[in-house]
Design goal:
This protein is an alpha+beta fold. It contains nine helices and ten strands. The strands form three sheets. It has a four-stranded antiparallel β-sheet with strand order 2-6-4-5. A three-stranded antiparallel β-sheet has the order 1-7-3. The longest helix has 27 residues. It starts with a helix and ends in a 9-residue tail after the last helix.
Length: 251
């Protein structure tokens, strides 16, 4: 059960062998959520939640009930990094049926105290998440409605393809038009026109919870999509820095 957590953290590593051993023996609680259910509320503290199955969204709900979705999480993502050292200012909800594995606060604190490589990995995971958020900011501020939709679809497909969850141009996207609109800062009427345009132009179709990419090259060009914005950041020099010297304690 813990291999997915180790693999997820190792993307931002490398992590030390002592930490691998600690993660192998730590206890993860498994929770399941139906579509629309709250995974983590705003104001909570992180418990190192790992999305093992399904898609989830991060969103901020305003006083008038409207919301802004600003991230879509895919399997293998650590979904509550924002609450590691302070309370979160947003909530996380299941976009589809989800399985989440959660490490308790005390175990997390113990691992952070004992293993410098965990802190380094989490730091780089936060940097990776921040880079992806800047891409969303550029979309909301500068890209056209069609371009920001294309960029979002490329992101969702590319991230699932790297996990072997997308094949033949198809991947899961169990989102309603209002979900897509709330992620892109558009009205439902506007997103309906954009989706129809992408379909009519032979670029992409969303139907029955599935995103079908019809022409990747043209869609990526329209959305100015750069996969580097979502690639896990790592640093071999940093990894070497946390490896122990011969005879030193294992981090």
């Amino acid at each position: 059960m813990n291999r997915l957590l180790i693999a997820s953290l190792d993307r931002f590593g490398p992590i030390g062998e002592g930490l691998r051993a600690g993660l192998t023996t730590c206890v993860l609680k498994t929770e399941t959520f139906e579509a629309g259910e709250l995974i983590a509320p705003a104001g909570g503290r992180a418990q190192l939640r790992l999305l093992a199955r399904g898609l989830a969204i991060k969103q901020t709900v305003l006083a008038d009930g409207t919301r802004q979705i600003f991230s879509v999480a895919t399997p293998g993502d650590l979904i509550d990094l924002a609450g590691l050292f302070t309370e979160t200012d947003h909530e996380i909800r299941a976009l589809a049926p989800c399985e989440v594995r959660r490490l308790g606060v005390r175990e997390l604190q113990g691992l952070l105290h004992d293993h410098a490589s965990l802190l380094a990995a989490l730091f780089r995971a936060v940097l990776t998440e921040a880079r992806a958020q800047r891409n969303w900011m550029v979309s909301l501020g500068r890209r056209s409605a069609a371009a920001r939709t294309a960029n979002l679809f490329c992101e969702i497909y590319w991230r699932q393809k790297t996990l072997a969850l997308a094949t033949d141009g198809r991947c899961a996207l169990p989102a309603l038009q209002n979900d897509i609109a709330d992620a892109l800062g558009l009205s439902v009427v506007h997103i309906h026109r954009v989706l129809r345009g992408l379909r009519d132009d032979g670029l992409a179709v969303v139907k029955n919870g599935v995103l079908q990419i019809l022409d990747w090259d043209r869609l990526a060009a329209l959305g100015d999509f750069d996969p580097e914005a979502f690639r896990a950041q790592t640093d071999q020099a940093l990894g070497a820095a946390v490896r122990p010297m011969p005879g030193a304690p294992v981090p």
